[in-house]
């Protein structure tokens, strides 16, 4: 499944309402580790057809990051049925990301 960039708060809420499982990458364009995380996140998104993968630019939509208490980026949130299942902060390898998703 392709990664979707969130445009605004309504778009974000629509995604959460439509999909059972959502993996969110909170990032910013000035963040070096976020740039390194992008191809890893995109590869995993293509392989994980059971969840929706989205990216939230914290500079463009800070209220979403504030709502979820994001203080460091990159931060990944796994949400199932609108409940946060797990959070991972920092750059992660593809295999570690897959392992993390499998556990949750």
Write a short abstract of this structure.
The protein is 40% helix and 27% strand. The chain has four helices and five strands. It has helices spanning 9-18, 32-47, 62-67, 94-103, and strands spanning 4-5, 21-27, 52-57, 75-80, 83-89.
What topology emerges from the helices and strands here?
Elements: E1 4-5, H1 9-18, E2 21-27, H2 32-47, E3 52-57, H3 62-67, E4 75-80, E5 83-89, H4 94-103
Parallel strand pairs: 1-3, 2-3
Antiparallel strand pairs: 2-4, 4-5
Kindly identify the CATH topology. Glutaredoxin
Q: Span from first to last CA?
A: 19 Å
Which series of helices and strands comes N to C? Answer: EHEHEHEEH
Main sheet summary:
5 strands, mixed
User: What is the CATH C level class, in words?
Assistant: Alpha Beta
Give a verbal description of the structure.
The protein has helices at 9-18, 32-47, 62-67, 94-103, and strands at 4-5, 21-27, 52-57, 75-80, 83-89. The chain has 104 residues and is an alpha/beta fold. It has one domain (4-103): 3-Layer(aba) Sandwich (Glutaredoxin), CATH 3.40.30.10. A 5-stranded mixed sheet has the order 1-3-2-4-5. β4 (75-80) and β5 form a beta hairpin. The chain is globular and about 30 Å long. The two termini are 19 Å apart. 30% of the residues are buried. The mean pLDDT is 95.
